[in-house]
Specification:
- The structure is a homodimer.
- By secondary structure, chain A is an alpha/beta fold.
- Chain A folds into five domains: 9-121, Beta-grasp domain (Ubiquitin-like (UB roll)), CATH 3.10.20.30; 127-219, Ubiquitin-like (UB roll) (Roll), CATH 3.10.20; 254-365, Nucleotidyltransferase, domain 5; 384-421 and 545-667, Nucleotidyltransferase, domain 5, CATH 3.30.420; 424-542, no CATH class.
- Chain A has 17 helices and 33 strands.
- In chain A, the strands form nine sheets. In chain A, strands 16-15-14-17-19-18 form a six-stranded mixed sheet, with helices on both faces. In chain A, strands 30-29-20-21-22-31 form a six-stranded mixed sheet, sandwiched between helices. Chain A has a five-stranded mixed sheet with strand order 2-1-7-3-6, covered by helices on one side.
- Chain A starts with 17 loop residues before the first strand and ends in a 27-residue tail after the last strand.
- At the A-B interface, helix 3 and helix 4 of A face helix 3 and helix 4 of B.
Amino acid sequence: MANDHVTDPTQATDTDPLVVFTPSGKRGRFPLGTPVLTAARQLGVDLDSVCGGRGICSKCQITPSYGEFSKHGVTVADDALSEWNRVEQRYKDKRGLIDGRRLGCQATVQGDVVIDVPPESQVHRQVVRKRAEVRDITMNPSTRLFYVEVEEPDMHKPSGDMERLIEALETQWGLKDVQTDLHILQCLQPALRKGQWKVTVAVHLGHTGQSAKIMHIWPGYYEGSVYGLAVDLGSTTIAAHLCDLKTGEVIASSGIMNPQIRFGEDLMSRVSYAMMNKGGDQEMTNAVREGMNALFTQIAAEAEIDKALIVDAVFVCNPVMHHLFLGIDPFELGQAPFALATSDSLALRAVELDLNIHPAARVYLLPCIAGHVGADAAAVALSEAPDKSDDLVLVVDVGTNAEILLGNKEKVLACSSPTGPAFEGAQISSGQRAAPGAIERVEINPETKEPRFRVIGSDLWSDEDGFGQSIATTGITGICGSGIIEAIAEMRLAGVLDASGLIGSAEQTGTKRCIEDGRTNAYLLWDGSAEGGPTITVTNPDIRAIQMAKAALYSGARLLMDKFDVDRVDRVVLAGAFGAHISAKHAMVLGMIPDCELDAVTSAGNAAGTGARIALLNTEARVEIEDTVRNIEKIETAVEPRFQEHFVNASAIPNSSDPFPILGHVVTLPNVNFNTGGGDASAEGGRRRRRRRD
Amino acid sequence: MANDHVTDPTQATDTDPLVVFTPSGKRGRFPLGTPVLTAARQLGVDLDSVCGGRGICSKCQITPSYGEFSKHGVTVADDALSEWNRVEQRYKDKRGLIDGRRLGCQATVQGDVVIDVPPESQVHRQVVRKRAEVRDITMNPSTRLFYVEVEEPDMHKPSGDMERLIEALETQWGLKDVQTDLHILQCLQPALRKGQWKVTVAVHLGHTGQSAKIMHIWPGYYEGSVYGLAVDLGSTTIAAHLCDLKTGEVIASSGIMNPQIRFGEDLMSRVSYAMMNKGGDQEMTNAVREGMNALFTQIAAEAEIDKALIVDAVFVCNPVMHHLFLGIDPFELGQAPFALATSDSLALRAVELDLNIHPAARVYLLPCIAGHVGADAAAVALSEAPDKSDDLVLVVDVGTNAEILLGNKEKVLACSSPTGPAFEGAQISSGQRAAPGAIERVEINPETKEPRFRVIGSDLWSDEDGFGQSIATTGITGICGSGIIEAIAEMRLAGVLDASGLIGSAEQTGTKRCIEDGRTNAYLLWDGSAEGGPTITVTNPDIRAIQMAKAALYSGARLLMDKFDVDRVDRVVLAGAFGAHISAKHAMVLGMIPDCELDAVTSAGNAAGTGARIALLNTEARVEIEDTVRNIEKIETAVEPRFQEHFVNASAIPNSSDPFPILGHVVTLPNVNFNTGGGDASAEGGRRRRRRRD
């Protein structure tokens, strides 16, 4: 530290004042006159400082407590700290300081004292997450700011300016073996001279084993912040959170459509595009990188920050997007054995990926778990931490592929299941992406068999007053993934659909909503033809598509349960945007997920995005997830005979006279069968007796 | 090693055959059937292999000796090695094999045997240097080739292809923590499949502390080589050697003019250009990088290799060129305290410097010694190794600045002296760069005072038959640096020039060659006016310019001698292109260098370029020179009062009646004085009594 005081805190005796820090409880004796910041450093108390104790940055604010403290056994006199000084007054006048706060680098120990370090003065402060069941994020970002005073050049000791800066970082901050990028060398000399040999540098501390690198240099004391991006690169959308790397706050969030969509809606059609078109992979790589840059420009503008202050970015994505983003032809991912070019995490420079952020910005990609289970699934594992769960948790990230994790503290299994795009509204006769105009929620009256529904863009149900008005601009355009699931589950509950997935005729069901549709029947959800709008029906092929998708999802989960040797799980977490909108009740009626108490089913929202944010804000978490991924047992559904077996058995929709409790109600599924030719549709995929293997 | 044999060499007993390797003398007992390559590896014998013992690369050729060997105490039976096998026969048929040679991976030990490892089978073979007094170069290049067999992907163990390649490098070659560049990930999968999971990889092993990086990948076994560049980036010319990184051979050498010359002939005018023109430094950076790329294209074409096979490059240059090449404004180098942006060595990627060689190629810049003593001087120190010299050696690299090293095993001092461009023919009335048409050698008959000379481009002296014919195309255009030095020294020897540097009149000297030139006289070397050519004279201002330059050089050397507390040196090494052409006798007559036995003055040629080549071929040498440079004591002439003092005293040209032996002759300098006004020109700069301080 630059602030060298006469007192030597290492030479404290038993008669020296006792200093107790809260909330850590760390304590020690220090000679009279020891600055509080020095005492904190000596004890390893987490007290921030950018300026190294020079009274510039005010990061080391502390709150002394006066009086008697039975818990700590310390009586604190009013003069336990040195008097309020000019530096503190100047800071207070200029920037303001909460009453009772002192600057830790200015206030010195004069007697026994209890000192509280408020959260905003801690380097490794906690960023609180919205959901109660998951851990908070501990701040430990890759890049931190350090203010240093650099020795001036001397002809008698001709070392370079950079070498003297590196020496200052070592002696003033204890940073070892700091390296630099070429671009810093190019702007170093003017910065040092403009700042009169005082500069603030952003140092990328890297993760274990990497050497620290100087990222940026500002003349004098830099008051601003540096930023990082947590990016969830999905097949359909790219979503980014812009975070302040000093506070951990998300200062802007934004998303765009993945520009690769023009090469194919789903992943496999993009892999095909690369296979059929020479240079097709490169086209898609360029498209996604351009999209990324557009998104970054947009998010920086929204947050009103300079894009060049973004020094770190973490990306999560599925394996195909991972390869296409990196410029690797995804050819091998389109065929067995689905070999990844690389499965480990990657630490790259943003320029290597053509990203226009800070010229020295670093990029981190989480590791992939397997050829079908990507860095996005790793991010979900980081966010939901099944490996730290006492109870057995099933985490399902539903998308074009469902990534499934099952585990607890003992072990974690992972697989991917080819659900296809039906859950996203594709392959559905009236299906569409979740966008304004799409039916997203459905209820069917079991008596009248009449539906009511809600449309994205309106808060009203279709049978409420003003509904027509509320959808005047969007219209009713189709049905999205969550809508089709609710519709089918409600059809089953209302008895217009049997366990095998057949829709009854008007005669069989007693409602004119059931209309003939070729050799089968369809259920009419909405007839907009009078106003020139669409007629939205749920057809038997729609049911089949959803049956295939949910069977794939269920079978993947069952396969992991087999491998775990259990018949039920304690908790289910639905991740992904789709998971956020899906109704647990309807998912269970459909038999998408295995048996579980219904209130043990929760939605994690965009858990992959949250995982990216954790890895951005805490480099320790990167080491942790790399370790977790190495230990996850990967199950390849394509080569597991049991998967096929489960799949065949899981296509039916639950058929049971057993009532089961849903959200406090008792639900009984009607025992109807519209298959005139009879059938062998079993119901493994749904209602199963709750039994444990013994 | 892939070639796993049944026998386990670690379990040898006293009765097992004894294997002695020459020239190392390493010996050990090995079970019957141990491959010679395995025995060599076990004993740490330097026996090359790229394919890891698979009988593909033939790098492990050895020569068994049969009969009795008193030195080694071994009697070798004819069947001491296994029989010549099919793999060896196939290799011999296809590529040829010297009689008596065997493949070390195929021949197995069957009895006591003495095995010679020929130089070309050694990894760390010696590259022999032309000059006897310097050490040979030990091959230890940054980048080596490794042939590996990679495990195929398996859905049950879904690791990435790269992770399996890295594992293969570790298990088959013992390479730890190998990392990779993004571009390798982009071409990895097709290469592995094309090579049927056998590939050759070029690995950059880095220097201590750096992690190994995969640079390139070839399907199957790659027979070719990879290349490196040793580049001497001078103010005037850029010279490069292209080296084979397998053999150490220089396969092409080439040079171009530094395109920065259009911004200023000398360094200080380039620094001024940068100061006077906004963006001027960037213009010069672009110019030198473009020139570099043109040179690389030219040299690769000359060697008929693909430029993309150049994976490593080492650069040496003076501080201003260093900064301009790196894109750093050299502003600070133009004024005290001459602060370098960075003085340490730099390991960069070629793309950062816009160099179009291998996309992952690495670049190494030697450390700078001080603000005026650059990486070129460090390279001279590496080549001439004063720090390893038993006797006291003075190394002088003469250019626009003279870099001077003085030292021995105990310590090394360094300084730079501002000689200015006179030694390069600039600031001389008839001066020109060393190019065809320039007078480079001069003799003046002491009796007749008539000159004879030689011109670059002709092997004849001007008074020999056919001279006129031989210069018909070039003509006689001027006088270059070495020419002017010889001319002035010869003028002094012939008595047409006095010790203070005044040319006598025709009357004083008795020759009409001495002509009036304003208020002083000039010496007419060549009158080409009859044929419309130039009149080449040596004028008094020319003498002054050379006096200034030689005084600067001499004073720098003297200053270091003062610091070393000596009055004379044991050896003088003249480095640089100019050093190669300068005549030691004339340099000493002029008083350019301090007292020394004349036959202890040698020319090192382009020692900076040689130093670059050493650092290219041997990464250990990089560590060594970094260490040496840290220990070199830097003397800044600008702040040393003694320098100024020496400079004033050194401007005269030796004036002594003491005869001194030059190349076996005894030379006496005439004791003339043309300074009619008298003068105090001392002759410290030249003839000094040989005395040692005691």
